[in-house]
From TrEMBL:
PANTHER family, per the entry: PREPILIN LEADER PEPTIDASE_N-METHYLTRANSFERASE-RELATED, TYPE 4 PREPILIN-LIKE PROTEINS LEADER PEPTIDE-PROCESSING ENZYME
Pfam families for this protein: Peptidase_A24
GO biological process assignments: signal peptide processing
Upper taxonomic lineage: Bacteria, Bacillati, Bacillota, Erysipelotrichia, Erysipelotrichales
Prepilin type IV endopeptidase peptidase domain span: 58-160
One GO molecular-function entry: aspartic-type endopeptidase activity
Source superkingdom: Bacteria
Membrane-traversing stretches: 27-44, 51-69, 101-122, 142-165, 177-200
GO cellular component, as recorded: plasma membrane
Similarity comment text for this entry: Belongs to the peptidase A24 family.
Provenance organism: Amedibacterium intestinale
Name listed for the protein in its UniProt record: Prepilin type IV endopeptidase peptidase domain-containing protein
InterPro entries: Prepilin_IV_endopep_pep (IPR000045), Prepilin_peptidase/N-MTase (IPR050882)
Keyword tags: Membrane, Transmembrane, Transmembrane helix
Amino acid sequence: MFSFYLLFCCSATLLLNYYIRKWTQKNLFICSVVSGVILSYVSCYYNEEAYLKFISFIWYMVLINISLIDVYTLRIPNSLTGILFVCALANGIFDNSVNVLSHILGMVSISLFLFTLCKVKADSFGFGDIKLCAADGLYLGLSNMICAFIIAVIAAGIAALCILIKKKKLKNVKMPFGPFLCFGFMLASLYGECIVNWYFSLY
């Protein structure tokens, strides 16, 4: 089974690298392939049906694409966000264990929070980040989505602190939030339940 995922990974990353290069004007083929190989391993050994593994693999690869494109362009393509929505809907249709209400709340909760922040303080977040949170909240569900967002905020805070130490200032430094969100989404999809259970065990 893993050989199939590895073959699929190599084919997919060829197409994905072409798409990344179209946006960033940079050849990130090695980065794409290495990421794809790692994620093909993760997807292959998920304890799920084959079609759910396929959906999760596509979801992971799109998140990697979004991260790379956002780093270089500070933009998140709507086409990739649309694919994430399709993955979330497909996962909801094929996975009988999905709690529909939890996933709808996951879609609305963080995206609505970010939208409200944008209305209060303009340009605090991009609309690409809001749409990304809506798509992945629908995929992850409420608890994993909140976990993912907290991870993203902590990771972004650490990165901002490193930039502050190095450059002595943050003013006029544009730091994309998309890669941190994607990191949080992927980590929460793998260990979200464990992290949430560990947190509540402290009380």
